[in-house]
Every structure is written in structure tokens, then in C-alpha cells.
Write a structure and sequence with these properties.
Length: about 325
């Protein structure tokens, strides 16, 4: 894990850059600002920019920046992302995440996630406690690759902690921590696995307590679990939203064995207010521990931003110069 701690002076400078941007934008539009974020980020402390550039160049699997500014008068945690969107809660914090994240990659979003918003609010929502989405609380989010089904899935999942009084852990497993038996790795390297969009993409809600999921009516892609450079492999996996593409015991067994290996090597990090974690979505699977949501304004609250190293892949896929994948 690569870590960086801002000094008090550096924290003040990040806040100053954010305030300068806010002053220039009478009407805040994250999607439009994304075009300018990389240029504005040149105002961030040099030591921070060097750290993030090193993370990108080395393909560090997980990096944490601590001490980012969070408004001491932060609004109560909204009971759902839609309320956050309506009220503009945590606006300066999403700006900070856009600034810092743009050093690593290009921000983008999805038309069918949180109404096409670029920066997402990760908060528990009433009625969603057992869902397999970030709005859940009572259900554990199992280790997974973000948007596992899509060829333009993010290179980095970034999470900026605004509030976490119950010290809910973000779980993760690095592919470098796994020692695949040779026969298992051979199966995982073949295109014999089918990947599906999760509930945030479909509008359907499959609960963790529902048992076996019915995924067959969802669009899907087929590919390997392990791929890329042999000496620096990449990984994609989401037990809840993948199946064996081949009707054979070897492929089905490989999914279960891999899940067990991932769980056995899992680590956890507890994000504190002002911490931003940048998870390499090709090198790590991540999840979240269950917790009890009180809906009293003090629940866990993160801002989430997807980052891609080459935004032109999205432009080409959209057939238009748009950062929101349709």
C-alpha cells in the first residue's frame, strides 16, 4: 500500500485551489469541469502530484492520500444519493476528489448510475439494506471488480471519506497476494467466464438474501479472469455477477476456488474523514463490511469517482466525445 500524508500547509493549499475553482464556477457542473480538472490540478502541492504520478507509473495496486480537507460544517449524511444530488451536499469535497483524481486518470460516469452523475455519493439508503449495491448496509459487499462486465471499466476506483464514525472497513485483495495452482491459473486465463452488469446498471434489485440470482436476461460479456502480462497480471472477478460460460464442472469449480482464495487473502482498511483511497481495478478486488445504518445524519458517507487512463476509449465506444458511458 502506497500512502501519502498531507501537511497542514499542503491541506490548506488543496482547500485554496478548491475555493478558487468554486469562485470561477457560478453554476457547478462536474461534467464540464472534468475537461479542466487536469489543468486546475497543477495548482495542487507538488509533492502530492509527484506521489500520484508515481502511483500511476508503477501501477501501484492501492494508494491512500490522507489529510484532504473536509468541511468542518459538513452537512448531515443524506439518506440516499438522490437527496445528496438534490441538495448539493458535499459539493466542495467532490471537487477535491475531481482535482486529486485527475492526476491519476480521466473522470467518467455511466448514464444508468445515479442519473448519469460523474461523482457518486456512497451512502446507505432506507429499503436498500440488503441490496447488492453501494446503497446497502446490512449486506456485505463481496470482493469484486468494479463494473466487471464492461470493456471500459475503470482503471481506478477512488473513494473519498467524508464520514465513517463506525469505522466500517473497505476490504480488498491484491492479485499479487494470491498463489494460484498452475491448473487453476490455466483455467482462469481462458475465456470461459461470463460477466454481467450489477444492479446499479439495470435498475433491478437482487438482494443478498434472495439466494440464487437470475442473470440470464442481462446483457453480458465473456472473457478470462486472469489476463495481461504474465509477470504483472490483471484480474477481474465478481462472484455475484459472473457465471461459468461453459457447462462444465471445471469452470464452475474455478469460480468457487478463486472466491475462497480471494477471501482468504483479504485485507481491510478503515477510511477516516479526509482519506482518499485509489484502488487499481485491474490489480485488486474490493468490497465493504456490513454495518448498521441509523439514518440519523451520521452514517458512513463517501464520494466515489471512476477514473480511466485513456478517455478516448470511452469516446470511441460512445461514438461521441462524451464522458458518460451510454
Amino acid at each position: 500500500m502506497e500512502t501519502f500524508h498531507l501537511t497542514a500547509q499542503e491541506r490548506a493549499r488543496v482547500a485554496e485551489v478548491a475555493e478558487e475553482v468554486q469562485a470561477d464556477w457560478a453554476s457547478w457542473d462536474p461534467l464540464r469541469f472534468a475537461e479542466e480538472a487536469a489543468a486546475a490540478a497543477h495548482g495542487l502541492p507538488l509533492r502530492l502530484r509527484r506521489f500520484l504520478s508515481g502511483v500511476r507509473a508503477s501501477e501501484a495496486d492501492l494508494a491512500v492520500v490522507s489529510g484532504l480537507p473536509v468541511d468542518p460544517a459538513l452537512a448531515p449524511t443524506p439518506a440516499g444519493w438522490d437527496l445528496a444530488a438534490k441538495t448539493g451536499a458535499g459539493r466542495r469535497e467532490e471537487l477535491v476528489l475531481l482535482l486529486v483524481g485527475s492526476v491519476l486518470g480521466e473522470p467518467f460516469g455511466w448514464v444508468n448510475q445515479q442519473d448519469g452523475r460523474l461523482v457518486h455519493d456512497v451512502v446507505p439508503a432506507p429499503g436498500m439494506e440488503e441490496s447488492l449495491t453501494s446503497a446497502s448496509s446490512a449486506a456485505q459487499l463481496t470482493l469484486h471488480t468494479e463494473d466487471v462486465f464492461h470493456p471500459f471499466r475503470c482503471d481506478y476506483v477512488s473513494l473519498f471519506c467524508l464520514r465513517n464514525p463506525d469505522e466500517v472497513g473497505t476490504t480488498f485483495t491484491r492479485i499479487d497476494a494470491l498463489d494460484f495452482p498452475e491448473d487453476l491459473r490455466e483455467v482462469l486465463s481462458e475465456s470461459r467466464f461470463r460477466f454481467y452488469p450489477d444492479d446499479s446498471h439495470t435498475g433491478e434489485i437482487l438482494n443478498a438474501i434472495d439466494g440464487e440470482q437470475v442473470l440470464g436476461n442481462r446483457r453480458s460479456t465473456v472473457g478470462p479472469v486472469v489476463f495481461g502480462p504474465a509477470e504483472h497480471p490483471y484480474l477481474r472477478f465478481d462472484r455475484d455477477f459472473m457465471t461459468a460460460d461453459r457447462d462444465d464442472e471445471k469452470t464452475a469449480t474455478a469460480i468457487q476456488v478463486t472466491h475462497d482464495l480471494l477471501c482468504g487473502a483479504a485485507e481491510r482498511i478503515v477510511l477516516q474523514p479526509g482519506d482518499a483511497v485509489f484502488i487499481d481495478n485491474y490489480r485488486i478486488v474490493h468490497g465493504r463490511e456490513p454495518f448498521h445504518a441509523r439514518y440519523d445524519g451520521n452514517d458512513r458517507w463517501l464520494k466515489r469517482l471512476n477514473l480511466i487512463r485513456d478517455v478516448r476509449r470511452i469516446y470511441a465506444g460512445n461514438g461521441a466525445r462524451r464522458r458518460i458511458i451510454t
